Amino acid sequence: MRQGRSAVGIEDMPENWNGTLLEGLASGDRSALRQIYIAHKDALLTVAASMTGDLPMAEDALQETFVSLARTRPRLPSEQRLKAYLFRSCINKVRDMFRRRVHCSPIDETVLTRTTGGNTPSELAEQSDDVRLIYEALQSLPTKQREVVALHCLGGLTFRESAQLLDTSINTAQSRYRYAMSKLKDELKGGAHV
User: Fold this and answer.
1) How far apart are CA 143 and CA 176, in angstroms?
2) Averaged pLDDT, 10-16
3) Are 154 and 58 in contact, with CB atoms under 8 Å apart?
């Protein structure tokens, strides 16, 4: 995988791209799968990395998500359904990995580079301590709170979308988010970084 942000994102696609790609996906068109991958990989990898704190594990979850998509070739009515399908699948892959794997290796610099938009090494060096503290604080959160934070803050999903993906109510998702933010604030205040 190439580091940094991809040059093509959802906002760069033609207006009718989703219908064409969804039809292509359903018929097994590999180029449609590739374009869907390009459009969604960064957000999914960021969410998976924030949930695991481990780049190889996050990349495995991303790969398994797209292998599953290619195998099942679901007929999805809209881009929004595709996005929900991908996030749900990725979250489930991470959960499955945690069930199978007892220990997660510490976060490494490549996770930081990926999730900070591919900054130069000197820029990353200046930010790495703060970013590392944030990731360590994220890892200290209970799983359900970390999932909401990852989906809302890093995945760009609304509380409604996050709640649907996590099979919970909007109020519960918002409550988990508030508790998580409070814990993160307290954790980071201890290090005098807030």
Assistant:
1) 10
2) 43
3) no
Integer Cα distance of 23 and 44 in angstroms: 22
DSSP 119-145: --HHHHHHHHHHHHHHHHHHHHS-HHH
Amino acid in the structure at residue 48: A
Residues 6+ apart with CB under 8 A from 97: 52, 57, 60, 61
Q: What is the pLDDT of residues 116-138, one digit of tens each?
A: 455 555 565 556 667 677 778 88
Q: List Cα–Cα distances, 172 to 88, 110, 112, 121, 144, in angstroms.
A: 17, 33, 30, 39, 10
pLDDT for position 106: 44
Contact 78, 19 (CB under 8 A): no
CA distance 181 to 186: 9
Q: Are 75 and 26 in contact (CB under 8 A)?
A: yes
Domain boundaries, the chain: 10-190
pLDDT band at 81 (very low <50, low <70, confident <90, very high): confident
